Amino acid sequence: QMAEPFLYDTGRRSQYGCLGHEVETEHIKAYVCRPSFFTDRAVIVIHDIFGWMFPDIRYIVDLIAGHGYITICPDFFKGTDPWKTTDHWGDFADWMKAHDPMKVDKEADVVLKYLEEQCGAKKIGIVGFSWGGMAVHHLMLKNPQLTAGVSLYGIIRDSEERYNLLNPTFFIFGEKDHTISYDQIILLEEKLKQYCKVAYKIKVYPGQVHGFAQLKPEDMKPDDKPYIEEARKDMIDWIKLFV
Predict the structure, then answer these.
(1) In this structure, what CATH number is given to the domain that contains residue 198?
(2) Which domain holds residue 100?
(3) Where does the Dienelactone hydrolase domain start and stop, copy by copy (predicted)?
């Protein structure tokens, strides 16, 4: 019996009225939120297994846009079904094979082109959560167009080349995340120290479970709130530093 990757109950979330709008570029739909003033800086947000329509991820998009970035969350599942809370965890491994977070390069290229050509973006950062965190880790190894990355509780585990990051990358983890062992984090830290030639940062937030940083304010537990807010501020500060 595989442990459920998510401790939070996605079925009991408050609704969220989004501030942005949906667009379509080539074969990809995306949710976009823009600040009220002109900017040539942008951030791509990569969703978790619950997909680009999940209210929590749209809340994050709006939050980042509020800090002055054209922010876009593309459907990296290309119209196929995201994981649903009613799906069986026994099928998760097969589902992951069909939704490989390290096969996102084509989609990333389409989105980068859209941001540069349609939105006039000159500097582009990327942020991803869980499945999206793995995708960010992968893209920061492959795509020099991405000025900076934040990978939240997503880690590429079985590749020797996962340490040669091209641009500054920040890894955020929850201390109580039972999908990522502390050993994995220590290994990442040791190897980055050895191989990484750009700025990087690793931070573990006390008592936090997988998925902690996506919660909307009304869904946060009072004990977790300071850590969630700190992680989000850290994420935005990292982006502001480089993008």
Answers:
(1) 3.40.50.1820
(2) 21-241
(3) 28-240
